[in-house]
Amino acid sequence: MVVLVILILMMKILSVYNWILILGHNEEMNENHDDECDSDSTKFSDASDDSYDSLGDEYSAFYNEVYDSVSRGIEEHSIAENIILEINSSKHAYNVPVNEVNSLVIKAVLNLALNSDGNFSSTVKSNLKYGLPIIQNYIKSISSQNDCIYSIEEFQLQNKELVTSLHLIKIIKFLYEENVLEEDLILKWFYKPKSLSDHVTSEQETLRKSKEVGLFIKWLEEAEEESTDDQDD
Q: Where in the numbering of this chain does the W2 domain appear (predicted)?
């Protein structure tokens, strides 16, 4: 009888022990599942961050291809239409928006002159003459003209130790005379500038206060007045 009672007690103890083990195993599984969820969540966040970072990488890769295409075009005297086809192909490959295409094409043409061994003034003039059909292909609307002129300004501000306000005005004047940039747009750029995110406002103000920029704007306004007078006559 005593032995039977002892056996019954031992069976109950084993049953409770097994139940404890089962609970412990389930809890461990839940903890592991939570850890996996946390790990997946982190991976998802990292993937999202990477997707934003890659956007800049795509722009950079597109710019490098534009730079190489224009550089090769200048060296080999390739017809502009072929360079435009290459740029358009790169544009679609990297899914670059139109405003960025406008800006990066201009910057590529200008940076090629800056990175050359020759005199910047003569080289940039030569590059602009070659690149004019390419620029005209992209810079047509008022919006694209804005992309163009602010890209030129940003280029000058980024390289102001080598590129002076006179250089900037010569570039803008060339594009004005070739009917790429309109007079009204240039005047608006001067009198009502929009802020450039990578530069403080004082830099833009200093540029517009320079003698060379002031003289050009004065010349532009006087040319407009003479044109108006001629029309009245």
A: 56-230
